[in-house]
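Form 7-S
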Amino acid sequence: MSVQTSSNRPLEQAKAHTVIDSPDPQSRVRSAPRPGEDPYPTRLAEALDLPWLNRQEPVVKGRDREGPLSAEQLDTFERRGFLFEPDFLAGEELDALRRELSALMARDDFQGRDFSITEPQGNEIRSLFAVHFLSRLFGRLANDERLMGRARQILGGEPYIHQSRINYKPGFEGKGFNWHSDFETWHAEDGMPAMHAVSASLVLTDNHAFNGPLMLVPGSHRVFVPCLGETPEDHHQQSLKTQQFGVPSREALRRLIDRHGIEAPTGAAGGLLLFDCNTLHGSNANMSPDPRSNVFFVYNRRDNRCVEPYAASKRRPRFLAHAPDEDWSADA
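Output:
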């Protein structure tokens, strides 16, 4: 794994970000939720007294479960909020997935569909959702015990696939994704109650510093950053192209990044990035001629299934938030 670290500090000090400190002990703010209220208020009209709230749930809940992750790997995930495993896939298995990705992206019948998101300017596909339903090959991979077992260890319970998608950044044209916590959106707009979800991102093309790799703020998963602004009606139609609501304040980002830095795991196709649902992440535009593509599977714990949205007038479409044992179809 290659990790690019960004900080305004000298490199020797930036390396200290590998040890993540605990949440700010002063984040028990006067306007914090009372017992019985939503512990993660967001999409607010006014900012709270401090830029973040303490996380309520443990990060790793299944240390007692057998699975593919070692105790050291679980420690790394708990401390940093993500874990990168290079060479998770290789050979013919990886080649078959890359061929399947190309076939899906080339399908004319996916153009103009609600689950097929194009670039903000242009017609190239940016994200293709519900991919584990659109493809048998990706469906088998999503339910593979290699991934399910990792999710089970982290979540401490039986997982189901809350969301799946392909993210694709064409060379020169692929735009970035703003800083955000996935949990903030899933809580506000999908009704995910608690932080019992983990994302598995499989790198299907080589990720390097110039084609817009995913950037993460290690340690940011330990606090929840409420966001300002009421959720617009049918917000997903805009946010999946360019997100404006559900974005942390610059003050919160500056403080967290100054404390922990920014890391961008890069490497050859076939790597696996596991990251906590609340880890702040984003990516730059693809400035290189090389496309970048990843397939994401989001695993939510079954007893954490979504309820009514906490900060939106209605649930988002089903292709964005699946229920346990759901049988979604593009033709439904």
